[in-house]
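Reopening this ticket.

The earlier resolution said the output was attached, but the attachment link was broken on my side. Pasting everything inline this time so it's all in one place.
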Amino acid sequence: MKGKEWYQADDVAQAYESKRFSRGGQLIDRREKRAVLDSLNPVTGADILEIACGTGRFTAMLAERGANIVGIDISDAMLAQGRRKARNNGVNDTLELLRGDAARLPFPDNHFDAVFAMRFFHLAETPGTFLTEMARVSNDIVFFDTFNHRSTRIIYNWLLPMGSHLYSRSQVKKLLSDAELAMVDDTHDFLLPYGFYRKIPNDLAHGFRDVDKSLGESEFGDALASVSYWTATVDTDSATTDTAETNLETSQHTPDGTVAADD
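Inline output:
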């Protein structure tokens, strides 16, 4: 079973993109980047954090488009690949890559305009903890993807156990609610599994992708899609209510009935 040790290995980091985003996998890379941009735009001048940034596919792309981007990852080997990519793309001075734990983000509340994670939640043992941290440091957008419980990923998990977590829509909505996030958009894609695209030449993959998108537009497309992209916003109404309740409780417990200020 793949875990933290596998993910942090030097050889895995070096071959990560060539194994997943070459051949027909180029279509996956393109679709994922489009999903990120659709959710986060406009990115120019925006302060953005990527959780589990890996080899920097998205951090470099966003830096090139003028974002103030920070990426955090647990793997030094992956971060080394990300820094190399940033240098090659001429954006190493406009992004920051840090080693850290996504469950304890080293940033103050409301620090970023947007926080996102790609290819992360299927391996997250405590998704609620991670999503709550993402919500805490964002003042607006939180974006992430999940693999779906009714998709062909079920077969993939059975054939090649990876510890991947598959989510239903109701589970995602519960996670969002618990993190005080409000869903604003969701899109679903790829009836054919990722592994299929990676095994075939890019030219051939385009034909299958056309069929895949056509099937995805049918009435059962969303239900059987392999991946979902979720866009949410910080629930300011809930935050305002919580703040008001906290202030009320504080005033009730101060001797003179005034609201005590933080030191």
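Reporter confirms the inline version is readable. The chain has a mean pLDDT of 84. The chain has twelve helices and eight strands.
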